[in-house]
Design a protein that fits this description.
Elements (H helix, E strand, L loop, with lengths): L2 H19 L3 H46 L3 H5 L2 E4 L2 E9 L6 E5 L7 H12 L4 E6 L15 H14 L6 E6 L2 H11 L4 E7 L15 H12 L8 H4 L3 H5 L4 H14 L3 H20 L6 E5 L9 H15 L5 E4 L6 H4 L1 H16 L3
Parallel strand pairs: 3-4, 3-5, 5-6, 6-7, 7-8
Antiparallel strand pairs: 1-2, 2-4
Amino acid sequence: MTPAAAGDRSKSQLSVLVWIFRDTPEGRGMVFLLTVIVWSLVLTCILGVCLVIAGSIVDGLSQAKDNALLAGGKNLQYTNRVSVGTAMVNAYVTGNTEQGPVLVLLSGSGTPSPIYDFQSLVERLRLKHPLVVMERLGYGFSDHTQLSRDVNTVLEQDRSVLASLGYLGPYILVAHSMAGLEALHWSQQYPEEVVGIIGLDMACPEAYSRINIPPRWVTTCAAALRRCGVLRLFPSLVSHQLDAAKAGALTDNDKASYLALCYRNFMSSDVRNEIAFARQNAGYIDSIGLPRVKLRLFVSNGKGTGLPKEDWRQLQSNLLKKTGNNSSSMTIFNVPHYIHDYETVQIAQHIDETVSHWRQGV
């Protein structure tokens, strides 16, 4: 830009400022508008700082209480951490070990504590079946890491944990929501290890072409609310993940532990990475070709899935047709996505019947 052009540009900018601030109704209106904008920004910043300070104070006071709660009582029996490389994965083992095969419970994405989420169902299944509740990295009592959440890595970590616990298969995979992807891939890669899949409103690859997945910046901002303590000031932000506390058979102490784990694990690094990998994982599984495997599906009304009831149920029906065999079936319930927390008794009875048939080779 030449000196002359630069001078002309400066004069033009100056003339605009002179017009804005001239002593006219338009100028005074513009000054008032700018004043409102500036003060709004200042007040927003002050409010943000106050929220962070308040959140940090509340979080600091609450963390010590949460840590003490999670280190004692029932949580001691729930904590069984197994080394997977440089990280520790937690798995809860319970049930009748004289019966087989073992039921491996796999939670949906973002469930703060798979153990507490499945507790009501586990209590009804444990007398008849051996059970292992897996808590993937970033969940429950497991470590937080920056490891890849591609479906192959997740699968091999879970298989490693089960092998360390002495379970080499075959397994019945009980998968909720996103864990349906891992269950399907398990039967793709190791069909001899999978007797069948029990789907608790499980997701399928086709679903991820329809579901809106939050971008990385949204999940990162959500995680920041947890780290700075602001999340504790707005508990309603996490209440949608606590169906087990609302509808399950948890005691008050169980609910307190579940909430403490929610504040610890909400949008952990592993959960954020898992969400980022969701479409890639679904596409990868779909490209291999869905396996033929025994399926027992329990299907919700779609609330909590991000899809209308009819669309969600159609996806489940499509999955049954593409993947299931003559031993496969589907039962529909008019309850939300965390279906096992709302229809615990009926689902447990159906699982008992299904496992009995599968044991007999039916």
